[in-house]
Amino acid sequence: MAEFIKIYPENPNPKAIQKVVNILRDGGLVIYPTDTVYGLGCDITNLKAMERVAQIKGVKLEKSNFSFVCEDLSNLSDYVKQIDTTTFKILKRALPGPYTFILPGSKRLPSPFKKRKTVGIRVPDNSIALALVNALGNPIISTSIRDEDDIIEYTTDPELILEKWDHLVDLVIDGGYGGNEASTIIDLSGDAPEVVREGKGSLDIL
């Protein structure tokens, strides 16, 4: 049974955030709000937790397209090769915001992703998500929680999310109703920006 914890986005309670972080550090899986849809996340330094996420999503960890959720651009140098000024300006304009940027991966990627040429980076404009990453001290590996329903692709009600994910995760955060539109994915790893998926984020930043 997953724990269910209410955290208000206007002013995330540090004790509640710390409770979630303790679960993440222990290898737990957490469903949390972002500036788009609710995400399923775990500590990027915990291999077993990442394998659990991959198993839930039905993919091999090495081949998964999970995003690295960071607090700001200061984490970039840990996982991303040096980027040019134009790319950096796009990131600066867009983040925090509803975007996933595909960037060239560095040699310091976590072991399951060592053979990767690229990495997806997210800095969501959501105070709960950013407080979690800040308190954890490193990024969260994350993926959207999708629905099998043809009509509703993303569940937005945290109580319904809890019902569905109760036996799969360790904690669900109720941070209010989520969105039902995923992030805009932009590939910045090549010569010119390429829009992979148009979602909530405007393309005016390019």
Which key terms come to mind for this protein?
single chain; 206 residues; alpha/beta; ten-stranded mixed sheet
How does this structure look, described?
The protein is α/β, with parallel strands linked by helices. Helix content is 27%, strand content 21%. It has 6 helices and 10 strands. It has a 10-stranded mixed sheet with strand order 1-8-2-3-7-4-6-5-9-10, with helices on both faces. A hairpin with a 6-residue loop joins strand 2 and strand 3. Helix 1 crosses helix 5 (127-136). The longest helix is centred in the N-terminal third of the chain and has 12 residues, at 14-25. It is globular. The termini are far apart.
What are the SSEs and their pairings?
Layout: E1 3-6, H1 14-25, E2 30-32, E3 39-43, H2 47-57, E4 67-69, H3 76-79, H4 85-94, E5 99-104, E6 118-122, H5 127-136, E7 140-144, H6 158-165, E8 171-174, E9 184-187, E10 194-197
Parallel strand pairs: 1-8, 2-8, 4-6, 5-9
Antiparallel strand pairs: 2-3, 3-7, 4-7, 5-6, 9-10
